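Minutes, project check-in
Item: structure for the 207-residue chain
Input as provided by the requester:
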Amino acid sequence: MKVLLLNGSPDPSGCTYTALSIVAASLEAEGIDTEICQVGAKPVIGCTGCGGCRAGKGCVFTDDAVNEFVAKAREADGFIFGSPVHYASASGAVTAFLDRCFYSGSSAFAYKPGACVVSCRRAGSTATLDQLNKYLTISNMPIVSSCYWNMVHGNLPEEVQRDLEGVQIMENLGKNMAWILKCIALGKMKGVEHPVIASRARTNFIR
């Protein structure tokens, strides 16, 4: 089993990466393989709603890692999406990245457990978690929780390490994710598959 962890920070070794590394170490201790993927520091174009992905070949924009991540997601068993807090919300890069990942490849994530992790200096963390969790709740993904909201505090990686409660939250999140993955695997061995849902009825408020 494998969990993909997405670092939505432009810093490949900053506070968000530190939090994800703690989760990854906890998962590895439970026998789960992990890979931390980096959104990167280059600009990420947002979804333009062009519909090109409906051809089944992924997002039409190929100058970033969106299609690569979706391809890896199809082989993965679970996900941790991480972001720093920018103006009480997720980073612009990870928002654009996830918009396109989920719009062009939502089937790669469906029925696989996921969790979101945020890092901040002081505040805005719960609003950011609410934003990120919406990707999961629109995609038939079970959400994995911890012993508190999945956040760490600090302005530098070493400060995150001193956030003892935050470190514990990340460690417990890894353990809980491993437990859920193992439960799903045992269920499949017993013939329990994910539900087959009805076709989505797309309506608006005037019809």
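Outcome recorded: The first strand starts at residue 2 and ends at 7.
No further action items on this chain.
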